[in-house]
Amino acid sequence: MFRKEYIQEAYNRGKNQSQPKRRSDSFFDNEVQRYYFKLVEEYPSFLTPHSKPFDPLELARQTEEIVGKGNSRKYTDFYCTGVYGGISTGYTIGCCLRCVFCWVDFSRDFPLQTGQFFSAQHAFQNLNHNARKAGVKKMRISGGEPTLCPEHLVSVLELIRETPCLFILETNGILFGNDPDYVNRLKKYRNIHIRVSLKAGNPEGFERRTGGKGEFYELPFKAVEYLKKEGINFHVAAMTDPGLMPGEERKMMLTRLKSIGYNDYLEEERCDPYPSTAVRLEKAGYKLRK
Ligand code: SF4
After folding, report:
1. Which atom of ligand 1 lies nearest, measured to the CA of 98?
2. What is the distance in A from the centroid of ligand 1 to the CA of 259?
3. Which of 106, 158, 177, 237 is the most buried (most CB within 10 A)?
4. Is the pTM of this model over 0.85?
């Protein structure tokens, strides 16, 4: 489904609400329909050559309003998969970037229309049940940015703490880089490993490939600094696929990492041709170089 279908869906959802009908010349008959329409229309989806760069912190806030409620967060699925040698996974919704190489499904772009709310307790029960059933000792929240809705994440971590499982937290580092106190809150969880995934080595690359304003490219590097300072178990990954990131920019990224004292393992990522990735690249006007 793309924008047109989602707008129709918004119209139908609004129509199904028990709102008093008012006479209106507008296509949308009532307040609820207009509310959904506004959200669908204004919420940034995949990038195109005409997309306006956005503030990722503001997008995080907007997204949290859609995908979070109290300590609940939207998910579409819970399952086990073979990565990391077997891991119980909750597929959540919502991100504060719009990477052109992103593999997650279109719930990222249209979170309003997708998923169901799960309390931290309920999400944990599903993660734990699937882990025990499959005999795996790792858990993660994937499919979106897990650091959105901090109360949900921290509540899930509190529950996982009582299990023998390792929680792998894969993050783009935007919220951590903006808030050292958030990083500090995670210090007490000894059973987590954080994977910070860098998307760019300079402001231009960040803006071009994530849609976020270039000035925010610093935040994931700040996240690395804060994690190091707090002594939290983590490593850095980077989307350095040569088809997307120029060699010069990769060098700048490596230099920057070194300058902030990161000399450990760097996991260099390649862009996998998932169907959603292919659509995003095409919509953004990219041709992946071989
Ligand atoms: S690749 Fe990660 S950070 Fe980028 S849009 Fe997808 S989920 Fe968000």
Report:
1. 5
2. 25
3. 177
4. yes
